């Protein structure tokens, strides 16, 4: 969507629904497509119920750049272990961005995927909303 001057905004928000995943079930959701060359500046997950971190059996949330096919660059990740605390219901939980600057870059046409992966026997993912901020280069 263009601004009044006809230019695209400097920060583009991509939002997607994340379905619930039972204990022991992985999910992957197409979070959106980067229409511009840019940099991911924020990844936030808003669960519809609390997710309590655990050390042995847990879950990891990640944003992965699939590029235009089978890419596997992890852009942000949040392991839901005890030290990560709890993701409260209806409260924004930011996923820490990759410490490698190049991993945050997108090319026009890159497909971004959100993964919810169980560790050990896992914990449930209640589902919710994913919000990604993409700054134009």
Structure description:
The model has no long low-confidence stretch (mean pLDDT 92). This protein has one domain: Sandwich (Jelly Rolls), CATH 2.60.120. By secondary structure, the chain is an all-beta fold. It is built from no helices and eleven strands. The chain has strands at 11-18, 27-33, 38-47, 51-52, 58-67, 73-79, 86-87, 93-94, 105-106, 111-119, 128-136. A hairpin with a 5-residue loop joins β5 (58-67) and β6 (73-79). 26% of the residues are buried.
Short description:
The chain is an all-beta fold and 137 residues long. The protein has one domain: Jelly Rolls. The protein is built from no helices and 11 strands.
CATH class: Mainly Beta
Fraction of residues in helices? under 10%
Overall mean confidence score, pLDDT: 92
CATH topology descriptor = Jelly Rolls
The figure for the number of domains is 1
What are the SSEs and their pairings?
Blueprint: E1 11-18, E2 27-33, E3 38-47, E4 51-52, E5 58-67, E6 73-79, E7 86-87, E8 93-94, E9 105-106, E10 111-119, E11 128-136
Antiparallel strand pairs: 1-11, 2-10, 3-8, 3-9, 3-11, 4-7, 5-6, 5-10
């Amino acid at each position: 969507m263009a601004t009044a001057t006809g230019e695209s905004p400097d920060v583009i928000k991509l939002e997607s629904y994340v379905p619930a995943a039972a204990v022991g079930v992985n999910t992957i959701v197409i979070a959106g497509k980067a229409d511009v060359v840019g940099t991911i500046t924020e990844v936030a997950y808003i669960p519809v119920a609390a997710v309590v971190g655990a050390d042995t059996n847990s879950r990891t949330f990640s944003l992965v750049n699939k590029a235009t096919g089978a890419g596997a660059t992890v852009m942000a990740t949040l392991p839901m272990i005890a030290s990560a605390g709890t993701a409260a219901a209806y409260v924004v939980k930011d996923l820490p961005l990759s410490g490698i600057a190049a991993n945050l870059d997108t090319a026009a046409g890159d497909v971004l995927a959100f993964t919810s992966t169980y560790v050990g026997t896992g914990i449930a993912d209640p589902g919710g909303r994913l919000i990604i901020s993409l700054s134009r280069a």
